Amino acid sequence: MAFAGENAEKGWQWHETTSPHFAVSHEMAWTPPGFVMDLEKIHGRLRMDLGMLSPWMAKERIKLYLYKDPQSYLAGEFNPPSWSNGLALFELKAVAVPDNPDRKDLLRVIAHEMTHMLFESYWWESKKRPPAWLNEGLAMMEEADSPDRPERSPWYQLMVLAKPGTFLPLEQFFAITPTKDLHNQDTIGDWYVQAYSITYFLYRGHQRLQFKNFCSNLRDGRPLFESLWLAYRYHDAPALEKDWKQWLSRPEQRVRVDKAMAAARREAQSQQEGKTKVPFSPSVIRPTRIKPMKGFRSLRE
User: Fold this and answer.
1) What is the pLDDT of residue 12?
2) Chain mean pLDDT for the chain
3) How far apart are CA 257 and CA 195, in angstroms?
4) pLDDT tens column, 117-158
5) Backbone phi, then psi, for 53, in 5-degree steps?
6) Domain range 1-125, CATH class
7) Where are the domains of the chain?
8) How is 250-295 classified by DSSP, letter by letter?
């Protein structure tokens, strides 16, 4: 890739910073303070969840291209679409993102795109692509800083606070490709929340080995419900839907979210009043209407 020669004419050059698990190419002279350490934390978390599918991540460095701003990113050699704020390049085992002054948001996007890259590289070993709902649901699940505090995630909050009837019957849901079949922003948002919820239930609500076996069966070409039966003993959509909705309606789910949102409001109020400086938490975002397609519309569908 011809970085230095061509880009020197524009007044900047690429620099590289390496760590045990990353090779970061960045336009700025230095990476942001603590950035590489934050990347290693993301890697450790993703390795716990996805290392069983992509064991290469333990030994090979992941490439990260950090552009200095959205304009440079959009004009870059990877030709991202205008709505994109991150790219997963599984063929290169790489992720490309523009810098963002909101460090938490930048790390969230990197975790999202790294998940796509790792998960898609697993599927591409068999020259296949993952189902859209599973690919997007897993990436949203892995955005969270801590799997032990999922209620701090806006996706988790949206899932728990969704009104009855928001989600589609699973037979219909599994058949949808959002970029082709959905055109209303509210419907698209609901589909993404449902993708998060189903994936979260299949992964966090069961054993990791079951999730691995489910993905393996799908990748081997077995039909969806045969794969669900072999891994989870769900023989059809209604059986899965019954267990999923029972899990979703547990009272403790709402209690956890209410506590997280109350704590977030207190933190936001304290920050406003200047009494104390509290680290940003994604749960400060109130779970109202969202447009998740911005930046996360899949290039893989």
Assistant:
1) 53
2) 88
3) 19
4) 999 999 999 999 999 999 999 999 999 867 788 999 999 999
5) -95, -30
6) alpha beta
7) 1-125, 130-301
8) -HHHHHHHHHHHHHHHHHHHHHHHTS------GGGS--S---TTTB
List pLDDT tens digits, range 21-40. Answer: 999 999 999 998 999 999 99
DSSP state of 84: B
Give the SS3 label for residue 75: coil
Share in percent of the chain as helix, strand, coil (round to 5): 55, 10, 40
Exposed/middle/buried for residue 127 (C-beta within 10 Å: 0-12, 13-18, 19+): exposed
Cα separation, 224 vs 131, in Å, equals 10
In contact, 137 and 200? CB cutoff 8 Å: yes
**Residue type at 8?**
A
User: What single letter denotes the amino acid at residue 27?
Assistant: E
Tokens linked to 67: 């552009």
Token pair 């390049």 in the structure block, residue: 89
**Position 177 confidence tier, pLDDT thresholds 50, 70, 90:** confident
* First-to-final CA distance of the chain: 26
Give the tokens for residue 78: 């990877």
pTM (two decimals): 0.85
Q: Which amino acid is at 125?
A: E
User: What are the φ and ψ backbone dihedral angles of 145, each rounded to 5 degrees?
Assistant: -70, -35
C-alpha span between 274 and 267 (Å, rounded): 10
